[in-house]
Amino acid sequence: MERLAILASIRTIDDLSLWIRGSGLEIVMLLAGGLLTIRSAKWLLAMGERAADERAGDTDQVGPRRHKAITQAMGWLVTAMVSVAVGVLIADRFGLPMATLVPTATVVGVTVGFGAQRLVQDIFSGFFLLAERQLSIGDVVRISAPGTIEGISGTVEEVTLRVTRLRTLKGEVVFIPNGEIRQVTNLSVEWARLVLDVPLRPDEDVDRAITVLRGVCEQIWQDEPWATMLLDPPEVLGVQAINVGVVQVRLVARVRATQQWEAGRELRRRVALGLSDAGMEPVKPIMTPQGIEEP
Predict the structure, then answer these.
(1) Contact, 189 vs 142, CB < 8 A?
(2) Contact by Cβ (8 Å): 72, 137
(3) Could you give phi then psi for residue 22, rounded to 5 degrees?
């Protein structure tokens, strides 16, 4: 109350000058110290991130993304803690009776706490997302309900303790509260499996088609630009299914994470060209009373 009385008693330029040289100077120092602390903490976190990336090496593609996500979350946490501490100290310099505000702040805190349960849940979920390495910046993920394969897919652009930001294939930015994330399918961890089902006509020579497909697999495995994406030579498993008007032959391959789409497009192109060069016609759609049905 004494400082509040002093602040309220400022009437002249001399009083204001006295307050500025006292509490005012302390407030400026607190602001400068808070900014310096935040900058120093972020600088140390960035140094730690670079050191961790160097230890991970060039072969580890997941580590650097995980380190960046943790650095962003820790930077956000340090900023919030320092800002709250500086705000309390500045309020004290203005002479606000902090001791008498404690009971009121407790009641308000309990009231807000019941309304902020979702926020607390988001923060705890974000902490475990980072601690358990479920996703990192740059990962391609699908977030969906447990037990389902449908959901929101995209590239992780930012992970904080409260929300995760995804960029979809169409360029849309989706913000998902971490407390709403129940199932994460990460398509960018270590390696991915490329599965390609090739449709053939029922009257086609299946053994000849399999021989052509094996030749395509050997060719793409020997080409340097694509061999670096593939971890193993593509393999023809054989006939996967026999349906009305179509016989499906399955090809599989292990590829580096996030490169399954590019390698898959090239493999499909080569399969189409290989079957065409061998004189094998593509499967025609089946005419039904309701219209055209793709086999």
Answers:
(1) no
(2) yes
(3) -100, -95
Domain ranges of the chain: 2-115, 134-186, 191-293
- Quick: pLDDT tens for 176-194: 998 888 888 888 777 888 8
Q: How many CB atoms lie within 10 A of CB 20?
A: 13
The closest of 149, 141, 143 to 65, measured between CA atoms, is 141
Please report which confidence band the pLDDT of residue 1 belongs to, taking 50, 70 and 90 as the band edges: very low
Q: Give the integer Cα–Cα distance in Å for 61 and 256.
A: 10
Which H or E run contains 6? helix 2-8
What is the per-residue pLDDT for 111? 56
> CA-CA distance, 281 to 127, in Å (whole number)?
54
| Of residues 188, 122, 180, the one with CA closest to residue 151 | 180
Provide the whole-model pTM: 0.54
Pick from 18, 22, 29: nearest CA to 89: 29
Instruction: Indicate the range of 26-30, 108-112, 187-191 predicted with least confidence.
Output: 108-112
Q: Domain spanning 2-115 has what CATH number?
A: 1.10.287
Mind listing the pLDDT tens digit for each residue in 134-173? 888 888 889 988 877 788 889 888 888 788 999 998 889 9
Report whether CATH 3.30.70.100 matches the domain 191-293.
yes
- The CATH code of the domain at 134-186 is 2.30.30.60
